[in-house]
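Lay summary. Proteins are chains of building blocks that fold into shapes, and those shapes determine what they do. In this project we predict the shape from the chain. Here is one chain we studied, written as its sequence of building blocks.
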Amino acid sequence: MIKRIDQARPAVIYGLLAVLMAAVFVPMSLFRLVDGDEGTYLLVSRLVVEGHLPYHDFHYPQMFLLPYVYGAWMKLVGFSWYGARLLSALFSVALGLLVAWQVVRLTRQPAAGLLAGMLFAFSSLAFGWYPLVKTFAFPTLMLFGAYAVLSWRSTRWKWVASGFLLGLGIDSRVYLAALAPAFLVEIYLTEERPKDRVMQLARFGIGLGLALLPNEFFFLLDPDTFIFNVFGHHAIRTGFGAFGRLDQKADLAMQMLGINTAEGVTSFQFLLLFLLNVASWISRAIARERLPLSSMIAIPLLLVSFLPTPAYAQYFCMPLPFMIVDAAVLLGKIAGETSARRAWSLPVSFLAVYLLVSPLDFHRYTVGGTMVPGVINHANAVNWKLSTIRAVGQAIDRELRPERPVAISFWPGYLVETKASIMPGMENHFALDLAYRVQPYEIIKFKLMSYPGLTWHLRQHTVDVVVLGNWTFNREWVREQVVKSGYVLTGTIERAEIFTLPSVNGKR
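And here is the predicted shape, written in a compact code that computers can read:
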């Protein structure tokens, strides 16, 4: 069987892998329970298409690029959850194929590439998080592209392309900037002459600089606003600082290594890959071989995944492709050094054990909801189904008047597919809590919403529709303020409650 795979045409191998990955990532994009952050990313994607600027017209605590990528896509296919997630699925398939291609290039073994592709497709960290509209699929694809493009035979443009792709990744997730030194080290190690090192460094810098150049525009418009959105938000949103809660980070490390109770079976697969990566690093050290660029990216990326406060298991989906490359290369090397009869017995056994637990997380992410971040348990899963969220959006549209399209929703995701505009200041579901941690003038400057400001809008009836559903903190108090302000409950869809102003003589 392995011999037939190695003799097969590359187009056949990659075609089969593409079909396999599409069969995993496309259904997951359609049925995966919604993550709370997706609502913000999708709504701001709609806002940028409508002409609004991140940071300066609304609060957005990430780098600028992602809303423009998804906004441009939805401009073509329509503003819908399914359309946006389909793009994430396409990014996921492209990333998986690139991983397989890179392993084949490194090992000259198509079977090893097929192994890598299957490890990628059936990793809980991949199918659980890449098909979402988050800062994972696109920046990871860009980062991996920055690494894989260095396999080009051309030496003139590959470092320009590498720097540019890395810059696009940074434009979506800022801490990827910590990986630039790995590429600089690669230049130093692969170019022997100082002149060539300087030339490749310049080319890499040109590509990187071109990709990062748009940030200067947002920065120059208002430096304080840009810095607060991209950096300051994360330093104050929890009260523990930008890099606090070391106890939580230590607990996460033990979870990922299967020592403490972990999120689903993600940690089991991660532990298997991590052990193979450690074995690869040790074997190279013993053989006095330098670490490959994939390892020089994976190691710091694993470390920076602990930096945000709090840190989550989902962040480790970004180093995943690089860990799979190192694991598949090691397994391919072992197979190549073993007698023909049992050459692939260990890699195949590893794959079988690895895949055995995948169905558990397929169910957890699509139906069960248990321990899924933001969903927590099965009872709450129905509130995070796309069908429920779209139904709430349709109910909002039925209550809106064309001349008064603004609505209050504590979670932006309900409004993605509607004709409604969200109340300014509530584009991000953390904004209300964040307002407690800044000065009063900063609430206005940074486009946030405070609870006093919210109650003013309710009492002044500046909107006709108020939605209490996902991410509605202090729910009982909020409901009390809504009712006191004269709004009446006109519909419920699962846990979501829709309040409107009563009609007087057919008018509100």
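What the prediction tells us: Residues 2-368 form one domain.
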